[in-house]
Amino acid sequence: MKMLPTLLAFALVSTVAVMPAQAAVIAVGPGAFGPGATLTTFNGLADGLEVDGLVVNGILFDYSLGAGSVVINGGPGVTNNIAPQNIVSIGANAGVLTLTLPGPVSTFGYGFALLNTIPVPAATTIRLFSGATDVGSLSYAGAPDPVFTGGFAGIQSTLLFNRVELTFNAVAAPAFALDNIRTSTAANVPEPGTMLLLTASLAVLGARVFRRSCS
Q1: Which CATH homologous superfamily contains domain 20-189?
Q2: Residue 201 pLDDT greater than 80, yes or no
Q3: Is residue 10 within 8 Å of 207, Cβ to Cβ?
Q4: Which one has a higher pLDDT value, 138 or 17?
Q5: Nearest 5 degrees, angle CA 55-CA 61-CA 65?
Q6: What is the Cα–Cα distance from 212 to 215, expressed in whole angstroms?
Q7: Residue of 48, 55, 52, 50 whose CA lies nearest to 65
Q8: How far apart are CA 65 and CA 50, in angstroms?
Q9: pTM of the entire structure?
């Protein structure tokens, strides 16, 4: 009978130990970003400003295909989710746009548009990272918004992340645009320090159960 507490303690500590490597991600709309959310726009930036290496509101933008492919300008004009100025691809658009955030968040989103006027099932994809750890990803459909294909792409993770990689469907459209980047941290997502404290506390509890079972 003494083996049962020991096995329960081992299972408890093992389960807690792997929790930080697992995340659940869900799609969210603009309503998921409350009053404390941060909104990043590109209003007032000059036409033609290079995006690769640009920092706006603490966010560092990098484009995998290098300079000369993604700039700031008026893009498709006003849609339901973007407005001048915005980030627009003017060259090769099959690259990865990486956003390094100024701090860890749990919720991220943006308005987007493609140079197309028909529905696109997988118009854009978001992939999240916590440092070098891949947290999860989701793809989003685009629809006329109201003319150009687009919409809002929002994601929430049970683990905090600080880097985001965005891609756009280069087969369905020769150009993309994005604007109105939103970030926030949901109140129900534990901070990393809280998770470490919980893990340590449960590990101590497991050790006590183990010692009692052996006495």
Answers
A1: Galactose-binding domain-like (2.60.120.260)
A2: no
A3: no
A4: 138
A5: 140
A6: 5
A7: 52
A8: 13
A9: 0.79
C-alpha span between 169 and 119 (Å, rounded)? 12
The encoded tokens of residue 125 equal: 């994809």
Residues 45, 50, 56: CA angle, nearest 5 degrees: 50
Per DSSP, the three-state class of 136 is strand
**pLDDT confidence of residue 187:** 57
- Rounded average pLDDT over 174-199: 70
* 63-93 pLDDT per residue, tens: 999 999 999 999 999 999 999 999 999 999 9
Residue written as token pair 């929430």: 156
Nearest to 76 by CA among 114, 121, 44, 47: 114
Eight-class DSSP state of 20: G
Task: Judge contact between 193 and 200, C-beta under 8 A.
Answer: no
Phi-psi sector, 102: left (phi>0), alpha (psi -120 to 50), beta: alpha
Helices 192-214, 3-18: inter-axial angle, 10-degree rounding: 170
Position with higher pLDDT, 23 vs 113: 113
* Predicted confidence (pLDDT) at residue 51 exceeds the cutoff of 50: yes
CA angle 162, 166, 169 (to 5 degrees): 170
Cβ 148 vs Cβ 115: under 8 Å: yes
